Amino acid sequence: MQHTMQLTAEQEAILEGVYGDTLARVMETLVRYGEIFGATKMVPVTSTYNHLVTSFGLKALTPVYDLMDQLIRAGAVSKQQFSADPRPLDPAVPSNLLQNLVFKKFMYSKQDFYEGQLQKLGLMQKDAFTCTCYMDEVGNTPALGEVLSWSESSAVVYANSVLGARCNRNSGIIDLMGSVVGFVPYFGLLTDDGRRADWVVEIRTTKKPEAQLLGSAIGMKVMEDVPYIVGLDRWLGELDDDARDYLKDFGAATASNGAVGLYHVEGITPEAVRDGRSLVREGAQTYVIDDAELQRVYDSYPIVWKKRDAAPKLCFMGCPHMSLNQLKAWTDKIEAGLAVSGRERVVVPTVFTAAPAVVERFNETPYAARLAATGVIVSYICPLMYMNNPLCGSMPVITSSNKLRTYTTARYYTDDEILEQITGCADGAAVAASVAKHDGSESDAKGGDR
């Protein structure tokens, strides 16, 4: 093929078919993809593992299955083992007979077949299905500066921002192709210049802003640009487990409500700590976020339920998947909320989703039995894939995930509002504050291992 990229001898040989026609076509696809975005060269993928966004066996994805078969037959498997986004189905999640029929016959009928293909191509392990592959329990955590070939938007923005790895917001299947040949086009967020900030976002709220709401506001304002956020370190302190959880959910909202692939938080994220405001471009725009601005964003969300005042039939938490730290913290909050309301079990069917490896670790703690006693279900499912079933999408579902709100009919509420709805307590904010104030003491008394 004719191209303008400066390729190495190895890359040129792959493109010319020296290593087979299949690899040549994969390389050609990547070269054409890169040239669209002005890439002048290809660079090696340097991470230990890859991550694929396409994890669901939709009946309509026949071309994908054909492509996978071609790669497998040619021995053109991934040079890295990889994780993949969450599975779309879990029998533990509430669904009726008709919904199950749609799931299994008309939507995800190829799930088992596709998972078999993924295992042949290099899946890390049988249960390596999660959108939070970077969790310690999963084991796919890139290092600072490593070059990735990922597509999942919430994982890309976390890897770029919180871990300081380098990855563009790729399209599905491009992630696998980069791993198959071992190279990706060099442009955008792989470059030093592409990681500089186009916006300075000043946080002037009177309390810690809701992660999903703040991320939504910034994503809708800056779109695909890079924001440099100042004033958030006042509320986050240091980059500990709580801050990582906050940035996970915040980043997912910036990526889904906008198209952010990288953000910097002054005093918190690694490149901001290292380089400070030298990351900000000259002439960068400024966006000020105060309490009123967050309320304006919250009030702007459309309610797409058929009956606006319908009682919720299901609550999903964990899009992206929850961490072990979050599962424990929410166990405390739900128990406290139920104690205030005088109830023993949640009043809205509630599903917490997390990576299979995180669920396994959680089940080894005393928290698992305590949470189960409240009626909450812990699952590895992808809430978004569940809600794509039109019979599920027509239900009144609530969530504190701005990603799930954006892509489905689920209705967004803050964490405190969710706590009130699912436990029936009158003041979720007061309950959450009380739990935070006494964090650890009651859990220790109950045998929790924080």
Automatic annotation (TrEMBL):
Key words, A-Z: Iron, Lyase
GO molecular function: lyase activity
Domain (Phosphomevalonate dehydratase large subunit-like): residue spans on this chain: 5-412
Keyword Acyltransferase assigned: no
Highest taxon of source: Bacteria
InterPro entries: PMDh-L-like_dom (IPR007506)
Database matches in Pfam families: AcnX
Protein name: Phosphomevalonate dehydratase large subunit-like domain-containing protein
Species in which this protein is naturally found: [Collinsella] massiliensis
